[in-house]
Amino acid sequence: MSKIDKYIASSVLWSFLVVAVVLLGLDFALTFIEQIKKVNDNYTIQSLMQVILYRLPGKLAEYIPVASLIGTLMGLGTLAATSELTVMRAAGMPIWRIGLAACQPILLVSLLGMGISEFVAPVAGQKANLIEKFQDQEAGTFSLTGGVWLKADKDIVYIDAADKDGTLYNVEIFSPEGQTLTAIRTAATAQHIEGSRWQLNQVTETQFFPDRIDKISTNHVSWDVSIKPEHLFLASQEPDTLSLSELHSYQTYLNQQNLDGSPYELEFWITALRPIASLALVLVALSSVFGPLRSSTMGGRIFTGVIIGLAFQNALNLFGRMSVAVNFPPVIGVSIPIVICLVAGLILVRRRG
Known about the structure:
By secondary structure, the chain is of the alpha+beta class. It has two domains: 3-137 and 250-352, no CATH class; 148-235, SH3 type barrels (Roll), CATH 2.30.30. The protein has helices at 3-35, 45-54, 56-81, 84-90, 95-139, 229-235, 244-256, 262-272, 274-289, 298-325, 330-352; strands at residues 148-152, 155-162, 167-177, 180-194, 197-208, 213-224. Helix 9 (274-289) packs parallel to helix 11 (330-352). The chain crosses the membrane at residues 12-33, 63-83, 95-116, 268-290, 302-319, 331-349.
């Protein structure tokens, strides 16, 4: 890499870092304002801060494509404003060479984002989820809204949260007989022992009879269920908090059970194609810097980048969810806006050059 290539790459990289920090700061502030109403005696301000901080790695990975677009506009825009790009072009440096130098740092941070999505964000997101769930456990209540419902053999099971160690939190087991509910078991935690054996802890069992209702409390109860702990953990997580390997594993399991795994497949492709999306947006930014934004102000470039980024993100969500709704391969829905940006960027850069 020549000195000019390094100079262009460093300009784009520093601009990307500035944009990423600003986006994360805005996300932190807006999330804090939105979630502050949840603070109470069990869910303190310190817990809220922990939850937001634990979710920042996932947000960083999610913001990389948009930050790449705005960062490239700012970095190359600054060079254009000082006529440095004009000098480079006059010296015979082609646009594709400038674009290649700009893509190199973006590719680096995109690969770093993939590592964060695979190894850091899932673990941190799990900790954030458990902190939120524990507020209900400490208050002695169940929030039957944020967990997962499963059919386990003949029972219907609700799990509020789970971790990778095989521990389930706030478990409710509904045992029907035909159309009649015969018993409900509520456990603070459940731990996997071996095979299909689990142990329920701090259990309250309510039994329904034609003429009475009995309630029994005990510390430990054995629970036999033919569900693997890793599947229970994955089922209790939102798709956007799972790593690529976990998304692929659980999607494969759901397909084997003839269940709908499209939300997990959709999230898999959104994450897997994120580096290509970042490079496609860099090409769009490159064509804009040498085109309509050549003499634009920095504020104009940032505004344009925000508009293009929002349009791209909305198109990604729209086509992705539409593909799930019409039972179409999610990879095609996710690829449509990426391919459009990639093709448009290549055509415009070729015309500028």
